[in-house]
Amino acid sequence: MRKHNSYYFAVALVILQLGSSSSSLTHGTVLQQEEDVLRSFLKSRAQITQAANGPVDDDDDDTWADPESSFSNLPTSCPPSAPGAREADRIAAMPGQPPRVNFGQYSGYVTVNEQHGRALFYYFVEAPYQASSKPLVLWLNGGPGCSSLGAGAMAELGPFRVNPDGKTLSRNRHAWNNVANVIFLESPAGVGFSYSNTTSENRASGDKRTAVDAYIFLLNWLERFPEYKGRDFFIAGESYSGHYVPQLAAVIVALRKLGVAGMNLKGIFVGNPLLDFSKNDKGSLEFLWNHGVMSDEAWGLIIEHCSFGPVEGKECTIAEDSVSIGNIDQYNIYAPVCIHGKDGSLHSSSYLPGYDPCIRFYIHDYYNRPEVQTAMHVRTRTDWLQCAPFKRWTDSPASMMPTINWLVDAGLNVWIYSGDMDDVCPITATRYSIKDLNLTVTKPWRPWYTPQREVGGYVQQYEGGFTFASVRGAGHLVPSFQPKRALVLFYSFLKGVLPPATVSV
C-alpha cells in the first residue's frame, strides 16, 4: 500500500452481499466483519495517497521512533477501584450458556478519559483450573475498529461459540482460557459496547489514542482486579492488531525503561498482522500468484509495472485491476462462504469441520438480545455491531518493524504467526517484513507438531528470541480455522519454548 499517514476512509463492503439470520436483521442487511474493514482500509489508504501524489509528511512515525519521550507524561498509577466494582462486573451466567461452566466471567466498563467520557468495554474469563497461577492475557482484534467480543471471544479463542439460533452457546474445547486468564477488550471507543460521550470520538480515532487508552484501561482494570498485579502478562491479537499490540507494548516498555514498575509484560503474540503497507500490497499479489489464482502473464505485468512504493503509475493500476479472483474468501482462499437462501436461511457453501462462515450473524443476534446485554452489564439502548463505522483514522505508521525491533532489543518475547491460507495479510507479506529486522537465525525453519501427530505448521527463531511461525491450513482468523493448532502454538509461546519438533509417541 502507498504511504499516507493522515486520511479519511469509508468502510465499504468488498465481499459477497450476504444476508442476515432470521431474527434481528432485515433481509439483505450486510454485516461488516474485521477482514472486510481491513481490506477497505487498505484500499482507501492507497487511493488517497495516490490522490495526494505521494506520502504526506507528519510526525506520526516519530511517536513510535522514541516511545520513551512520547509517553513519559502518562500516569503510572490511578486511584483504587470503588469498593465492590469487581463483584458488580461478575456475570452470573451468560444467557444460553451450556451446563457446568466452571470459570469466572466478568464484564463492564472502564473509564479511560473523564473529560470526554470515554469508556472501554471488556469481557474477562478466568481459567477453569488454577486460575491464580496462570498468566494474564489481553486480546485485541483489529479492523481498525472491530470488536474483540465478536470475532475473538465468540468465533475464535473464547470459551464459547454462538449457535445458529443466535440465542444459545456451546463450549469451545480449545479456548485459550484453558491455559490463561483472558481479557477481551473492545477498543477504541466507538467499537462494540465501548463509547465516548464526545460524539465525534465515536467516528474518529487513531493508533496513538488507541494505545494510550488501552494502557489507561489496564491501569484501572488492575485496580479492579488487584490479584493480577505482578502476574505474568502478555498481549495478543491479530490483523490490524499488528499495530495495536506492539504499540501498546511499546507504551508499557517505555514507561518501564523510565523506571516505572508498571505491568509485568513478558511478551506479545500477533497473528496474520498488518506490519508494512507496501510489503502487504506486494505480498498479497504474490500470494495469489503462488496459489494459482493469478496467471503468470498477469503477475509478469504487475512485476513489470509496479514498484510497490509510495506512488504507482497508471500501468500498475491497470495491471492489478486486470486480476479476477472470482467468488472466493480472500481471508482463507480455500474456505467455504456463507450463502443466504431465498427463504432467508443461512448455510455454508461447503463443509469445513468446526468452521461456520455464517457465525458473524449469530454473534450479532446474540449480543443484541436484551437479556445478554443485561447479564453483561451493558448500558441501556445499545446497538452492538462487529465493526464501528469510523469515518476518520488519524494516524497509522507505514511500517511497524522499527517498533518491533525496538521491543526485541528491549528484551521482550515477540512472536508473530501466520495462517498460511490468508491473502489479506498473507504469510508472504509477513516474511518480507521480517527481513527488515535483519536478525540472525538461531533455530532454522522446521515443522512443528500437535499432540495429534499432525504437522501444525513451521517455525523459525532469531536472535533476541524473536519467533515466526506458520499455522498450516489456517486463514486470517487462525483460531477459527485451526483451533487445536492455535492453542498448541499459544501454549508454547506462554511457556517460552518452541512448539514440538517431533511427533509425540
From TrEMBL:
This is Carboxypeptidase. It comes from Brachypodium distachyon. InterPro entries: AB_hydrolase_fold (IPR029058), Peptidase_S10 (IPR001563), Ser_caboxypep_his_AS (IPR033124). GO terms for biological process: proteolysis. PROSITE patterns: CARBOXYPEPT_SER_HIS (PS00560). PANTHER family: CARBOXYPEPTIDASE (PTHR11802:SF328), SERINE PROTEASE FAMILY S10 SERINE CARBOXYPEPTIDASE (PTHR11802). Residues 50-86 are annotated as: Disordered. It holds the Pfam family Peptidase_S10. Residues 56-65 have a biased composition (Acidic residues). Belongs to the peptidase S10 family. GO terms for molecular function: serine-type carboxypeptidase activity. Residues 1-21 form the signal peptide. The gene is LOC100843611. Keywords: Carboxypeptidase, Disulfide bond, Glycoprotein, Hydrolase, Protease, Signal, Zymogen.
